[in-house]
Every structure is written in structure tokens, then in C-alpha cells.
Amino acid sequence: MVPVYVIPADYAVPLEHLRYHARVLDDVRTWYAGATGGWTFTTEPLVVQISRHPFAELAADSFQAWWPKLQREFADYGLSWNRHSTIKLLLLVHGAGAWAGADSENGGIDSIAAAGLVDKGRWGGLALIGDSSAGGVLAGVCPEVAVAGAGERGRGGGTAWWCSGSTYRGTVAHELGHTWGLPHPDAFHAGFRCADSTAYTIMQCHWEYGRERLLDYEVTHLRSLPSFRRDTAVDVVLLSRAAPVAAMGARSVRIESGDSPVWVDGRGGGTGYLWGVVLAGAGASVQYAVPAGRNLLSVDIGLARGARQAAIVRIAADGQPLALVTVEPGSPPQRVVVPLRAARLLLVATTQGSGAAVLGNARLY
Ligand SMILES: [Zn+2]
Description:
Strand order of the largest sheet: 5-6-4-1-3-12-11
CATH topology of the largest domain: Collagenase (Catalytic Domain)
Largest sheet: 7 strands, mixed
Oligomer: single chain
Strand content: 25-35%
Number of helices: 6
Number of domains: 2
Shape: globular
Distance between the termini: 15 Å
Bound molecules: zinc ion
CATH architecture of the largest domain: 3-Layer(aba) Sandwich
Low-confidence stretches: none
Number of strands: 20
């Protein structure tokens, strides 16, 4: 899963929203573990993408216009979710109202009996969700936790049924469920409704996040997917959260510590990393001890915004060179994956150029 917080080109970057969305994604991951008996999805860390389109172009005459424009934009960035891609793209979109939708390459399971027995849900998907509920919470207009029985038609909301932090999390969990191939339960249970049911499922009653669960066949299906693991612990080690063994001219960025994201230009209006390590010019370096069982480095490497000269980034493990990456001004961040071959010490250094290099979302699997 690739989660992205999308901001229209002409909107300011709302720092509070970034922290909030990082928490929302953690919460939804934990929610799935609770609903499936300990299984949850693997995900990349959240990134921020300033769109190449201003608000007026994205919204056009209806909010449906967000859908094709953003799909095309992310396909141009190499993040196509269809055509046999395995990418599940989750776009949380600033300014897109309370609109939400999902699409899936597989269309979803056709019957309860098919749950867990078909590969539907393994292929690509797209979920696009407007962040107005989150905006309402941060503005103090919507409650963080929906009040039971309050809101429109008793749906437990604030000023509107969608207006609460818990409903927002429920919406994210619901739309992700579609991308994994789960339909609404009334596809199999004629007339299934939340209001007169004692069985709550996120796939029907997503405004009831606090008491929702998943139905048995939904759990069976999710557990069968390769993207679901029985692992409620943190599934990646973010290098920006680890203490380096040695560092020179290196700075860690962590959104939860109050840091602003670090920006790389070259894609739309810029890509922001909520976690990362910045190496300030030639000669900067950082070393980490690789924890046991971690054998893959995944990182987006780019040039920090404002840098005028290229940088060359060298990655080595236990003294053996593994990769050399050149980043030029204006070039987009490069997705780099390096097997560490049971190495114990990881070194990342800038060997040439005065530009500051960004190791965006640098992490170990
Ligand atoms: Zn739905």
C-alpha cells in the first residue's frame, strides 16, 4: 500500500494535517489487526505530494474530477495502480470535501464461498478520500470520536454524519477494504443494513468505526492476501527513528518530533517526506547497525529543495559498496531498493557535489 497525502498546487501545506494523517494510518492498521485476530496490511510510510494541478482544476465542476486527474498524475510519477500493478494507492486529498471512493483491478469476490480461495485482492487498487472530516476535527468543528446516537439519522457524527475523526478512520478502512476485493455485504446478504442489524462490518457501517468489526468471510479473505501478515508490531524500521552509530553532517526528520517534512522537487509541486535523513553536501555520512532479521533497505533518494548542485550518494554495507545514486537539481526522487545480504553495518554517504541529499522514508524490512 502506498499512502499519499495530496495537496492542490495552490494550497498551503498544513503541518497539523500531516501529523494527524500519520496517526490515522497507524490507527487503521491497528484496527485491522483487532478485526482480523492479529492480521494487518503492510504499507509504505506516508508521503506528501503537492499536485501539479491547482484546486480549481481538480475540483472542476464536480468533485468527480479529482478521480481522473489524480490517477493520470500518479501514473506519470510511475505509480499506476492498474494494468497488473500490485500497487494499492491510497490518496488522502486536502480540499476534496467529504468525497470518497475506491476502485480495484480485480472487482472483488463474487460470493462468500470464494473468500480466501481466489487471488482477487492481490492486484492493484485505488482509494481516494477527501480530508474534510480531518479538517473539521482540527478546526474544532467535528469531534475526534463520534458521539453515539448524535448526528444525522443517529449515525453518531458531529454536525454531519461524516464529521468526526472516528468516521474518517472508518472511511479509510472501508475504502481500503474495497481495494482488497471486499464488496458491501448486501451483495451477499439481501437487505443487510446497519440500522437494523446486530452485525456491524466496516464494509457497510463505516461511520460506526468504534463498534465495527468484519464478517467471518471478510476476515478469511483478508488473511489469504499476501499483503496481510500476522504482525501487529511495527513492520518497518525507519532509519530517522534509529540512533546512528556514527554521523557527520546528517540530520534526522521525524514528524512526531515536531519536524517539518523535508522536500524534494521534480514531481508536481514537490514531494514531502515525513521521515527521512538529510545529508548536507559532500563528505556527509551516517552509519546504522542493522537489526537482526532486517535485510532490505528501501529509500527515496533526491536532492533537498533549494540545492543548486547535484549530489552522489553511496550506499555500502560491512564495507562493501552496494549502490551509487546521482541526484540532479529538478530530478524527481528515485525509489531505491538494496538487499543488505545479512550485513551488520550500513553506511550512506555523499561522495561528491555540494547539494544536500534527502533519504526519504529510509527504512529497513
Ligand atoms: Zn463502499
